[in-house]
Amino acid sequence: MNSALRLVLATSLLMTNFVAGATESATFSVKLLTTETALKAAQAALAKCRKDGFQAAVAVVDRAGVVQVVLRDRFAGAHTPDTAIGKAWTAASFRQSTMALANETQAGKSMSGIRQLPRVVAAGGGLPVEAGGSVLGAIGVSGAPGGEADEACAAAGLKAINDDIEF
After folding, report:
1. What CATH number does residue 155 fall under?
2. What is the pLDDT of residues 24-77, one digit of tens each?
3. In this predicted model, what pLDDT tens digit does every residue of 105-117 receive, in sequence order?
4. Does residue 73 fall inside a structural domain?
5. Strand, helix or coil at 120?
6. How far apart are CA 81 and CA 73, in angstroms?
7. What residues are paired with 139 via a beta bridge?
C-alpha cells in the first residue's frame, strides 16, 4: 500500500471517530417531574399550610422554570399565585432556596443587584426539587406569614415526594 493511500485511510478513520464522538455528546438526557409528582408535592405543601392555619398558593415548576402545577387556597390573597410561581422559578433558576438567595442579595452585598432581575423573588418559600445530584424543578409557596412559614410548607411538599424521586 502506498503512503498516500495509507494517509487517506488514516485520516478517514480519525474523522469517523471524531464525528462519532461528537454525535454522542451532541445531546443529553434529563429527568423531569411528572405532572402527578408535581401535583402530589403541591397538595402536600398546601395541606401543611392549611394545618398550620395559613391560606396560601403553591406552584411547582420544572427544571427550566416552566409551571407544572399551581394551587391556590380559597382565601389566599390575589397576589399569592404569582408570588408562588416567582419563588419556584427563582429556586429553579438559581438552584438554591429563595431564603438563601434573600440572605445573599441583601442591600449592600455584592450580589444585591440580582433582586432587580425580572421574575426574581428573593423571599423565603422557594425550594429546588433535587434528586441524584440533579435539579428536577422547584416548589414555591406564598401566603403564610413570613418566608420561614412558606418554606416549611414547601419542605412538606418535598418530603411527600422524596421517596418517589430518589434515584
Report:
1. 3.30.450.150
2. 779 988 889 999 999 999 999 999 999 999 999 999 999 999 999 999 999 999
3. 999 999 999 999 9
4. yes
5. coil
6. 10
7. 60, 127
